[in-house]
Amino acid sequence: EMSDEERAFQDRIDEDIKIEPRDWMPEGYRKTLIRQIGQHAHSEIVGQLPEGNWITRAPTLERKMILLAKVQDEAGHGLYLYAAAETLGISRDDMTEQLLSGKMKYSSIFNYPTLTWADMGAVGWLVDGAAIMNQVPLQRTSYGPYSRAMIRICKEESFHQRQGYDIMMKMAQGSEAQKRMAQDALNRFWYPSLMMFGPSDAESVHSAQSMAWKIKMNTNDELRQKFVDQTVPQAEFLGLTVPDENLKWNEERGHYDYSQPDWDEFFNVLKGNGPCNAERLGARQKAWNEGQWVRDGLLAHARKNAARKVA
Ligand code: ACO
């Protein structure tokens, strides 16, 4: 049974009135948002690593500048999102510590390696493509600060997707070796990109409540299907083959039929056993440790300033 407060809260959600930090909210709503926004913020920050890997090896100065700008954007996205989560009463330090201890997750996709330059194309095209598919509807999410962060992030995210597709075009229209690299990148990133949308609706524990609260606007399978429908013609335009023998336009459904990713692999990556989990968390732990003196210095400075004001 809902209390009067909960009923009034749900009425506001149903009327599409945004919830703001000072408004009353059920504890479950607050916890779910901290989990989702925090996980999203961590994904932006950890997501810098697979691409940062290629900045020094980008094939031209122009490509280097573009990639550098994109990776910087991701740092900015992480910061907007941490700030949005902080309005719910958790500190960024707490979230970071929970990431490093394995209590909080980040997107499974960033536990796969980026082996060739074509992977920068595939990451932009597929990974950022999947991210936008998920984030465009989140611009209408019920929590005000999250919604506003999403509006800014989506603008930059579509530039990221286009730069990835542009790399794929160049590679797919290049030499035979370049075309092979592009196909290989698509082969390796296709199923991990499908996994980004989360488990099937039948296995998604949070979807029903999150949709009732309009924290999520669509189910995982809905967005995955939209992504497949949008991406298959883009692969055809590149002259590349999606690595799925069952992929077929279904006239009746008005959608592509496609194969599910290997869900055992997905849950195994979530448990920390993906190809790069240890490396990614190791890199974040190292950055955290090496930044300790900066945090200490800033704190000492803030304390000194505060003491001076009192005196
Ligand atoms: N990677 C890691 N964990 C995942 C993933 C994934 N791709 N998909 C689902 N999970 C986790 C969920 O966090 C949840 O675990 P938890 O209870 O320990 O937190 C569990 O699997 C069950 O999944 P769901 O019940 O479906 O979880 P939820 O309703 O949160 O849906 C989703 C998952 C779709 C990812 C949702 O959280 C979301 O839309 N998040 C915002 C977008 C986002 O985080 N994007 C990050 C990648 S894009 C980028 O950074 C460029």
UniProtKB/TrEMBL annotation:
InterPro entries in the record: Aromatic_CoA_ox/epox (IPR052703), Ferritin-like (IPR012347), Ferritin-like_SF (IPR009078), PaaA (IPR011881), PaaA_PaaC (IPR007814)
A GO molecular function held by the record: phenylacetyl-CoA 1,2-epoxidase activity
Keyword terms: Oxidoreductase
Gene3D superfamilies with a match to the protein in the record: 1.20.1260.10
Keyword Hydrolase attached: no
Biased composition (Basic and acidic residues): 1-9
Gene Ontology cellular component terms for the protein in this record: cytosol
One of the Pfam families matching this protein, by short name: PaaA_PaaC
NCBIfam families for this protein: PA_CoA_Oxy1
Name of the protein in question: 1,2-phenylacetyl-CoA epoxidase, subunit A
Gene: paaA_2
